[in-house]
Amino acid sequence: MSGSIQEPVVEDCAFDVFARACPSRGTLEHVTGRWGGLALGALYEGSLRFNELRRRVDGVSEKMLSQTLQALERDGLVHREAQPVNPPRVDYELTDLGRKVAERLLALIHCVEGAMDEVLTARARYDETRGAR
Amino acid sequence: MSGSIQEPVVEDCAFDVFARACPSRGTLEHVTGRWGGLALGALYEGSLRFNELRRRVDGVSEKMLSQTLQALERDGLVHREAQPVNPPRVDYELTDLGRKVAERLLALIHCVEGAMDEVLTARARYDETRGAR
DNA sequence: CAGAATCCGACCCGATACTG
DNA sequence: CAGTATCGGGTCGGATTCTG
């Protein structure tokens, strides 16, 4: 044991999002990013092909969907299954890890959706009191 | 009453994030945005002053923190209490709604933090197979 | 201390065109 | 169908300066 002089204490929480340099921030941003969350949410209902996903996530461009899926696949949250047929067919589905994350994410999404009345009311009040600016 | 001609049917799911124009997307982005989530997470532990928050959320600039807090206050997730003293003292704390949202958010954050080993492994594998690219 | 205002570069992201 | 490549505007966001 070695009473080392003074444990610099890297902290036991090795992956603390609050720390600037932590890799978990990056993953969290993939998950909560503009399209990442919606993609995970859509895939939670089941496997989807590229364009099915594109239609489900209203407003996403091909480029962004592609980019988003690659990030999620790289992080091990989404599995990509490409069949070498013609026309090409590629299916996306959540991994076990992806499903766990998606559950938490959906809980958050539903919480926010369900609170929108309250949010809208709060906004109106805020804009009224200091909205005139 | 008033059989108005045809209810435009705003849909029963009045606030569906998957719909492009839904206001819940905006709020969700405030919550899950780069700094919004971290601010909510930090405030979950208790009321904080501006600069305390700034130190807790490592890497955020004054500008972004200020901007973030305003958005969250407007959405009714954060309460801002300014005391007219000198030097000025302003405390931020979660509202009831904010606390509910923060709970879901922290569940997600901890889930991601806890999965980072797995994520990092997945990344390494991904980069190896097609990383040469 | 708690911000507001301004400047300015980086990159996000959508539209378009092209490939297999 | 399932993407990639390229371009360009808009926004994000950091550094700095200023106020009360």
TrEMBL record, chains A, B:
Gene Ontology MF, one: DNA binding
Record key words, sorted: DNA-binding, Transcription, Transcription regulation
Residues in HTH hxlR-type domain copies: 22-120
InterPro entries, sorted: HTH_HxlR, WH-like_DNA-bd_sf, WH_DNA-bd_sf
PANTHER family: HTH-TYPE TRANSCRIPTIONAL REGULATOR YODB, TRANSCRIPTIONAL REGULATOR, MARR FAMILY
Protein name, per record: Transcriptional regulator
Organism: Streptomyces bauhiniae
Lineage summary: Bacteria, Bacillati, Actinomycetota, Actinomycetes, Kitasatosporales
